[in-house]
């Protein structure tokens, strides 16, 4: 059986802007992957609202620094065959990642290193890595999300190319969410149920070719 760790933020958790709340379990993209790949694959969904690639958020009650928590996740769930790294949107907040695609890409590169440098105490193999560049932000009338992300729309459009460069440098797979789904204007950041499922189908297709 193959094991896939889906390491992400609110898009992985399944944040539903319409509520606000959480999408039904079946609509979340890790669940779609599990359904598409079947019983021979074990999917571990590890999403946290507000998680960054490698930056602190001192306003949050939980630790949102993805680089600090990832080794614990790797140790908890090994052996792992594939780690999907789906982070970067929250790096566009100025009080966390500084608000640029460059810093998000640097953070995702750090996460790749964390996966590859992790030493299993049981001698398990190093997992493959698939990075997912987040969908671009869109304008919104929501005042809170506009304040958090409204100034980063143009930067978010650079995430696809920035992550593609990292994938080429690190020799890992890359899927651009912006090629398959679009954020809802309800808050300008998150995916509705249909787009969340669409992302899951795209990732499942990419993983099928690997397996």
Q: Can you describe what's shown?
A:
The chain is α/β, with parallel strands linked by helices and 211 residues long. It has a single domain, classed as Rossmann fold, CATH 3.40.50.1110. The chain has helices spanning 10-13, 29-37, 66-77, 101-117, 143-149, 153-156, 159-170, 193-210; strands at residues 2-8, 15-16, 21-22, 41-47, 82-86, 128-133, 173-176. Strands 4-1-5-6-7 form a five-stranded parallel beta sheet, sandwiched between helices. A hairpin with a 4-residue loop joins strand 2 and strand 3. The N and C termini lie close together (11 Å).
What are the defining features of this structure?
single chain; 211 residues; alpha/beta; Rossmann fold; 5-stranded parallel β-sheet; two-stranded antiparallel ribbon; 8 helices; Arylesterase
CATH topology: Rossmann fold
Judged by helices, strands and strand pairing, the structural class is alpha/beta
| Tertiary shape | globular
Work out the radius of gyration.
16 Å
Spatial sequence of strands, sheet with the most strands: 4-1-5-6-7
The CATH homologous superfamily is termed: SGNH hydrolase
Main β-sheet description: 5 strands, parallel
Series of H and E elements? EHEEHEHEHEHHHEH
InterPro entries: SGNH_hydro, SGNH_hydro_sf
Pfam family, one: Lipase_GDSL_2
GO molecular function: hydrolase activity, acting on ester bonds
Organism: Aureimonas ureilytica
Q: Topology, please?
A:
Elements: E1 2-8, H1 10-13, E2 15-16, E3 21-22, H2 29-37, E4 41-47, H3 66-77, E5 82-86, H4 101-117, E6 128-133, H5 143-149, H6 153-156, H7 159-170, E7 173-176, H8 193-210
Parallel strand pairs: 1-4, 1-5, 5-6, 6-7
Antiparallel strand pairs: 2-3
Helix pairs in contact: 2-8, 3-4, 4-7
């Amino acid at each position: 059986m193959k094991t896939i760790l889906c390491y992400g933020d609110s898009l992985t958790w399944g944040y539903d802007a319409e509520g606000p709340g959480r999408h039904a379990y079946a609509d979340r993209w890790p669940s779609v992957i599990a359904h598409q790949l079947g019983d021979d694959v074990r999917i571990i969904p590890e999403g946290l609202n507000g998680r960054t690639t490698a930056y602190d958020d001192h306003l949050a009650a939980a630790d949102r620094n993805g680089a600090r928590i990832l080794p614990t996740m790797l140790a908890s769930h090994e052996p792992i065959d594939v780690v999907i790294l789906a982070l970067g949107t929250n790096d566009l907040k100025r009080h966390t990642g500084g608000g640029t695609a460059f810093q998000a890409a640097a953070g995702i590169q750090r996460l790749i290193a964390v996966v590859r440098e992790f030493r299993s105490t049981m001698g398990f193999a190093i997992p493959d890595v698939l990075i997912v560049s987040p969908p671009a932000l869109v304008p919104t009338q929501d005042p809170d999300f506009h304040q958090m992300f409204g100034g980063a729309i143009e930067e978010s459009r650079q995430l696809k190319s920035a992550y593609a460069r990292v994938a080429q440098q690190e020799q890992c797979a890359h899927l651009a969410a912006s090629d398959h789904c679009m954020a809802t204007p309800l808050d300008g950041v998150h995916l509705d149920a249909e787009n969340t499922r669409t992302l899951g189908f795209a990732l499942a297709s990419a993983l099928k070719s690997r397996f």
